[in-house]
Structure formats: structure tokens, C-alpha cells
Amino acid sequence: MWQLIKKLLPSDTSSEQALELAMAALLVRASIIDDDLNRAELDRIAAVLTERFQLSADAVSKLIAEAREAEAKAVDLYRFTRVITENLDQEGRKGLIEMLWEVVLADGKVDEYEENLVWRVAELVGVSTRDRVLLRKAVEERQGAGVVTAR
Asked: Which member of 13, 87, 88, 137 lies 3.0 to 4.6 Å from 92 by CB, making a disulfide possible if both were Cys?
């Protein structure tokens, strides 16, 4: 009985950890979906996670390792996007899409699989097409011109 009650009561620590893992797993997916994991994307993942969650370098490394494992076991995006929608408001969800664009654009090229992933995640978390495109343009401007879309 006590276990059932504990499951029903919200736990800020576990929901924050679940949110961190879900966001990190989506970022990892974005970095490997084009079969070209590179240092720029890995560095960007670490940077955006550090900034978003105010984590130490060791904590970020551990989180990325856990995210790689979770992403490898995942059969779909829903297990991650459900956590996002349950824990973030619209601005937070847009922040996730911005983080995804930061990772995708880190190597200066956008693969069609990367673009499709950002689109699918945006749809699943309720970020509009307009906002998704505006966020991409904002990240491109911050990172400078020279982004190539690979088809």
C-alpha cells in the first residue's frame, strides 16, 4: 500500500532527474541519428546540459553516459517526450527544441534525419512549426552562417 502511495505522490527530485535524462537522451539521439557523431556535437550537448541544469562537468558526463544507455534501449521518442510534456511549460519545451537545434547545427551541417528528428520531437511536445523554424533561425544566427543542409 505504501509503495502505491509513494508512486502517486510527486517527487521533485525524481521528476527533475527524469527530465534531465529525457532531455539528454533526445540530445544524444540528435547527435547520432546521422551516423556521424563528432566532437562538436558532443561538446555542444555538454554545454547545453551544463547551462540548462547548472551541473558540474562530472555530473554532465554521468548524465550523458546514462542518456546514451537510455537512448540505445528506447524503441521510440515517446518515453522521452512524455516526460518533457509532463514537466515543462511551453517556454521550456521551446527551450528543448532550441537545444536540439544547437546540437544538430554544431557541426555546421544539417542531415535530413536530424531535421526530421527535431520536427518529430517538436510535434510530440507541442511546439508549433513556426516556433521550430524561428528557433532554428535564431540558433543559426548565433552560430554564424555556413550551415549546409545535406539531402
From this structure: 88
